[in-house]
Amino acid sequence: MDRRSPIALFMALCASQLGVLAAGHSKVNPRIITAPQGAKEYVFPRSEKYPVFYHKENSSAIYIGGEGKLYYYDFATYENYTEDFPVKNEGQCMTSGSLEDNKNYLTLVEKYGDGMLVCGTGACAPTCWNLTQRKESTSWDGRGIAPFTPDSNTLVVVDGHDIYSTIKKSQQNGKIPRFRRVRGGGELYTSDTVMQNPQFVKATTLRHEEPHQDKIYYFFREDNPDKSPEAPRNISRVAQLCKEDKGGTSSLSASKWTTFLKASLICVDPVTKGNFNWLQDVFFVPASDWRRSKVYGLFTNTWGSSAVCVYSFGDIDNVFRTSKLKGYNGPNPEIKPGQCVSSGQHTPSETFKIADSHPEVEDRVEPLSPTKSPLFHNKHRYQKIGVHEVSVGDGRRYNVLYLATDKGSVHKIVELLDGVQNIMELQVFPKKDPIQSMILDHKRAMLYVGSTNKVVEIPMDMCGVYRNNCHSCLLARDPYCGWFNGTCQSVYLNREVRQNLNLDPWRGTCQKGDIKEDDYQNITVVPFSRYYLNCPIESHYATYNWYHNNSLIKTCNTTHPQQDCFHFIQNVSHVHYGHYVCISEEDGFKQALVKERLVNQLRFMSQKGQATMTFGSWLQLLLMVLLVELFH
Ligand SMILES: *[C@@H]1O[C@H](CO)[C@@H](O)[C@H](O)[C@H]1NC(C)=O
Ligand SMILES: *[C@@H]1O[C@H](CO)[C@@H](O)[C@H](O)[C@H]1NC(C)=O
Ligand SMILES: *[C@@H]1O[C@H](CO)[C@@H](O)[C@H](O)[C@H]1NC(C)=O
Ligand SMILES: *[C@@H]1O[C@H](CO)[C@@H](O)[C@H](O)[C@H]1NC(C)=O
Ligand SMILES: *[C@@H]1O[C@H](CO)[C@@H](O)[C@H](O)[C@H]1NC(C)=O
Ligand SMILES: *[C@@H]1O[C@H](CO)[C@@H](O)[C@H](O)[C@H]1NC(C)=O
Ligand SMILES: *[C@@H]1O[C@H](CO)[C@@H](O)[C@H](O)[C@H]1NC(C)=O
Ligand SMILES: *[C@@H]1O[C@H](CO)[C@@H](O)[C@H](O)[C@H]1NC(C)=O
Ligand SMILES: *[C@@H]1O[C@H](CO)[C@@H](O)[C@H](O)[C@H]1NC(C)=O
Question: Which subcellular locations apply to this protein (predicted)?
Fold first, then answer.
C-alpha cells in the first residue's frame, strides 16, 4: 500500500505516466549470493561418494581423491588430468562381505617430503603410493594410514616425515579407537582406557621454543562419564601429547604414549547458560608466538544451534601444566604427568602410571579472556569452520569466519570491534548439496568448497556484489571491500579504499559525489503539501532508520510490527527536499531499503530552461500549476 499523501501520489502517478519516474526502488540485497562473481567450478568426470580434497597454499590447483582415481585441476590454467589407482590383486574383502567396499577409495592426499602421499582402502588392503611429478612409486602397505573401508572417524596428520593417525591397523581387532604415531619415531598408541568411545575432530602439531617441548593436540568428543540425566551425553575434549614421546620403559608400556592428558572444552553462553557441548569442527590460527596461536571451535547443541568459542594454546598449555589430575590426590612426582622430558629420555614409569590411571585434568579449558564466552551463537546448524585474517587499508587486521551450513551455503562472518556481523550468505550449491570440504587459501584469499561432484573456487574479495553502490559497499562492513573513485574495490587491488569497519557513524563515509543519482527514486513534491516516507518492515528483529541528507531523522523499533516505518512531513518546505534513505539493521547487517530524492518539480523544471522542454514536460507543468492552484 502506498501511504504517500494524495497529492504526492497523484503527482507521482502523473509523472510516471509521463515517463519522468523511470526506475522503481532499486533494492540491493547483497546478503544472499547465489552465483558468486568470479567463482569458478570444476565438475568431476563422475560423481564420487567419498571424495577427499587437497589444495596447496598459494597455488591455484586442487586434487580430489575418488574411487580408484585422483583428479587434478588447475583453476588458473584449466590444466587437468586423472590418475588411476586400481585395486591390486582383487583386494582382501572376501571375508567382510560388502561388494561396495571392494574398491580402492582414496582416503588421503597430502604433501609428503618433496612429493605427495596418496593412500586408499585398496579393497580392504590399505595401500599408499608416493607421487612425484605425476609418477607413482610402487605401492606400499598403508595399514594405519588408510582405513580398510571408508570410515568417517579417522584423522591423519602428516607433519614432515611423521604421520599420526586414529586408524586401526588390523581389520578384525582393535575395536577401541586409538591415537597413533605410525611414521617417525617408534610406533605408539593411546591406552584403551583414556578415551570412551571417541569421535575425532581434528589434530595439529605445535612447535614450542625447544624441540623436545613440541606437542601434538587433538580434539574429539567422547561419552560423558557423568551419566546423571541432566548431564550431556557427550563431552568435548582436547588432548595433548609430546612429539618426542618415546613410550614407556616396561614391556607393557613400551608402545604407549606416556604424555597423554585430556581436558574438557567449555563453550557456554553466560546469559542463557546454554551449553554448546558438541564439538563439530575446529580451525587453527597460528601466531608467531605459539601461546597466541588460537583454536576456533565450532560447537552445536541438542537443538541444532551453533556457537563459536575461541581458545588460545597458551591457555590450553596452562591448564595441562598447572591443573590437578581429576581423582588423584597423591603427591606429584618430580616429572609431572603430561610434562615433556628431554630428548632421548623416557617418562619415568611412576609418572606414567599416575597419568595413565588419571588421564583427565580437573581444570577446564575456557574461551579467551576477558569474556570467556562464545564469540557468537545463532540458530544455524554449521558443519565446518574456516578463519581468514585480512589486513585492511588502515593497517588493522580483521578475522573473517567462513561457516559451512547444512544447506550447501557458506556464511561469511566478520569479527569487528563492536561484535561479529554476518555479512553474506553464499549459496555455493543451489541444490543444497552437502559441503564435503571447505579449504581456505590464505595467501591468494580464495575459498575452495567441495561436494560429491564438484569443487567451486570463490574469491574472498567479491566486491562486485555491492554493485558499485556506495551505501551497499560501506554498510556491508566487508573488510575485503571499500569505496574508491566511484567503485567498490577490493583491498587487495587498492589499499587506499574508504571503509567503515569501526564504530564511525556511517554518514561520515558516503559523500555527495559517491552517491549515484540513479540509485534514487525521484519524487516530485510541491511545497506546502504533506508527504509520507514509507519504509517496509520486513523483519521484526530489525531496526529501521530514516536519514535525510545523511542525518538521522527517525528510528523505528518494531514494537508495532504491523506498521511500516513512516516519516511524516506535515508541510513540505524547502528544507525537506533532498536525499532520504531508509536503512535496516539486523544482527549488525545493514542495508539500504528505500532511497528517495524529493524534488521541487517547479524549480527543477524552471532550472532546465526552455530549450529542453518537451511536450511531456509542458503537460506536466500544466498539471502541476493546476494542482498547486487546486490545493493551495
Ligand atoms: C605465491 O606465489 C606467487 C607466484 O605464484 C609468488 O610470486 C609469491 O611470492 C607467493 N607468495 C608467497 C607468500 O609464498
Ligand atoms: C581439461 O584439459 C583439456 C585440455 O587438456 C581441456 O580441453 C578441457 O577443457 C579441460 N577440462 C576442464 C574441465 O577444464
Ligand atoms: C615414499 O616416500 C617416503 C618419504 O619420502 C620414503 O621414505 C619412502 O621410502 C618412499 N616409498 C617408496 C616406495 O618410494
Ligand atoms: C554421544 O553419546 C552417546 C551416548 O553415550 C553415544 O552413543 C554416542 O556415540 C556419542 N556420540 C559421540 C559423537 O561421541
Ligand atoms: C577514476 O575513475 C576514472 C574512470 O571512472 C578514471 O578515468 C580515473 O583515472 C580514476 N582515478 C583514479 C585516481 O584512479
Ligand atoms: C533522478 O534525478 C537525477 C537528477 O536529475 C538524475 O541524475 C537521476 O538519474 C534520476 N534518477 C532516476 C532513478 O531516474
Ligand atoms: C530502539 O532500540 C534501541 C536499541 O534496541 C534503543 O537504544 C532505543 O532507545 C529504542 N528506541 C525507541 C524509540 O524505543
Ligand atoms: C505550511 O507552511 C506555510 C509557510 O511556512 C504556511 O503559510 C502554511 O499555512 C502551512 N500550511 C499548513 C497546511 O500548515
Ligand atoms: C537537503 O538537501 C536539499 C538539496 O540537496 C536541500 O534543498 C535541503 O535544504 C537540505 N535539507 C537539509 C535539512 O539539510
Answer: Membrane
